[in-house]
């Protein structure tokens, strides 16, 4: 699996958009990009995944750079329940790094 | 309800006493895996299984065994637990490898 670089932490205000970046410059051409999040005291949960095109679902949007070396998870309106650790995982989705701890302020 | 269950949720044991952590999924998923989570080290994959009777080592398999005799169950076996296996363990399943993974609630293991 490709190595990833994510900021250790980010802060957001409630009801504002949040852009969580991930660098995966060693990704291979066939690797999907998966995003998971882990709420306090819970197991990780799937957020979204994509290959080349931008993707949207009810939880978030995923913007993938044209060269696929980076991606951005977009939470359109952060809520307090979105406070979690967010993991970007290229490949078959089994190598979790340290992720980004998102804090949402009321 | 579609879910992954793990038992026990909490376990305190002593060095060398064999234990099994069970994992079961009700979604007819082919792929199952075990992770451990330690502070500062993130989640690391221990073993995974692509289907019944097919298991493979993950990144940190030493000291662990698994079996996959039925599609729904994927127990994690510690034949001789040691204190460095104190950790939070998660089981996960997905339809096939690379698809959305569903995680269990976790098992917190302490080995004294």
Describe this entry's structure for a reader:
The complex is a heterodimer of chains A (106) and B (112). With 106 residues, chain A is mainly β. Helices cover 0% and strands 45% of the residues of chain A. Chain A contains no helices and 9 strands. Chain A starts with 8 loop residues before the first strand and ends with a strand. In chain A, 38% of the residues are buried. In chain B, strand 9 and strand 10 (102-103) form a beta hairpin. Classes of the chains: A mainly beta (106), B mainly beta (112). At the A-B interface, strand 4 of A face strand 5, strand 9 and strand 10 of B.
Summing up helix and strand content along with how strands pair, one would put the structural category of chain A as: mainly beta
What general form of chain A does the structure show?
A: globular
Proportion in β-strands of chain B: over 45%
Strand arrangement, largest sheet of chain A?
Answer: 1-9-8-3-4
Which residues of chain A form runs of ≥5 with pLDDT under 50? none
- Give the terminus-to-terminus CA distance of chain B: 36 Å
Order of helices and strands of chain A: EEEEEEEEE
Q: How many β-strand stretches of chain B?
A: 11
Helical stretch count of chain B?
0
Structural class of chain B: mainly beta
* Overall pLDDT of chain B: 95
Largest sheet entry of chain A: 5 strands, mixed
Poorly predicted ranges of chain B (pLDDT <50, ≥5 residues)? Answer: none
């Amino acid at each position: 699996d490709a190595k990833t670089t994510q900021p250790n932490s980010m802060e957001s205000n409630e009801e504002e958009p949040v852009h969580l970046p991930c660098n995966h410059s060693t990704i291979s051409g066939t690797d999907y990009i998966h995003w998971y999040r882990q709420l306090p005291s819970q197991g990780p949960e799937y957020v979204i995944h994509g290959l080349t095109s931008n993707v949207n679902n009810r939880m978030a949007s995923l913007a993938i750079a044209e060269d696929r070396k980076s991606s951005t998870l977009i939470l359109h309106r952060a809520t307090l329940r979105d406070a979690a650790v967010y993991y970007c995982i290229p490949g078959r989705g089994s190598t979790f790094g340290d992720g980004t701890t998102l804090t949402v302020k009321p | 309800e579609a879910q992954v269950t793990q038992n026990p949720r909490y376990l305190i044991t002593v060095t060398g006493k064999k234990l099994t952590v069970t994992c079961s999924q009700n979604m007819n998923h082919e792929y199952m895996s075990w992770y451990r989570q330690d502070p500062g080290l993130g989640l690391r994959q221990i073993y995974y299984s692509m289907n019944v009777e097919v298991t493979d080592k993950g990144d940190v398999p030493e000291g662990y065994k698994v079996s996959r005799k039925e599609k729904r169950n994927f127990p994690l076996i510690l034949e001789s637990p040691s204190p460095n296996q104190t950790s939070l363990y998660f089981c996960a399943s997905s339809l096939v490898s690379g698809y959305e993974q569903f995680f269990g609630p976790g098992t917190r293991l302490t080995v004294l």
